[in-house]
Prior knowledge:
heterodimer; A: 127 residues; alpha+beta; 2 domains; 3 helices; B: 162 residues; Beta-Lactamase; 5-stranded antiparallel β-sheet; 4 helices; 5 strands; 17% helix; disordered N terminus
Amino acid sequence: MLSFEVRRYTGNRWLLDAVFDDKALAVAEAKALMARNRALAAVRVMAVTEDEDGFREWTIYKQSVINEDEEQALQRVLETSPVGAGVLPADAPRRRGFPGWLYYAEMSARVILLLSAGVFLIALLRR
Amino acid sequence: MARPNIAPAREMRLTMRVLGHWREAAGDRRYPRRADLNPARLGDDWQNCLLIAIDPVAEKSSFLYVGQNLRPQGVAYEGRRLSDCAEDTVLHRATTYLSRVLAKRVPISIGGAATHLGAPIVFRSVLLPMSETGDKVDAVFGAANFREIVLTEEIHAAGPPD
């Protein structure tokens, strides 16, 4: 059985919004959702089918004002980073307006600490 | 830059208009309440609508409202259980996937071919979850329309054309 699921991107995740058995209606509803709700960042329509091997789904329509993959990656980094909230590792996706000075200050402190530890170790070994 | 809120042109399809009304009634909430429905705003579409009260025992779920255009042979179904609905009707066909709506907790629309009082039809329906508490689905609002399929027969002469 083939169905078409309209999903909206809210709170950094995709949520099921409605289900149709007609592709054109699903796409029309997805477009109407975006037009009606200015706060909505993205919407997509997934074709979903079930067979003996399980469920399969694929995107047949998508409309977005953000790159939700980057948004989700950023959210994961912020949640799992051992450094703490608000500070990003060097390879994390950046967002415009993020306080970069905090990041560079933290990196500088790490470098100074490492250098100091290195000098201390060298002094110890020379004794 | 914020996107403008664009009011869509009037939707030509009944089920999509009703879905739009349901979304409007819900506002920022996940589900609208029964009191949020506005028959006046729905206009003529109200006669193609239905409202079901969901009972914890599925077999006891009953119709709260059935629009005139969905009443089989004009029979009023208000207060009657879904199981009392005759199977060969668009009303029955439009409610057969109620359990899917309750399981998924989102609007579902289906259509296709069926029969209504013995006549072949094509129909389109939508069922929309409602909640008085904002979480538990305790009613389902719906709409359906249909049209008869006219079957034509062609009888050809037994022999080849001249």
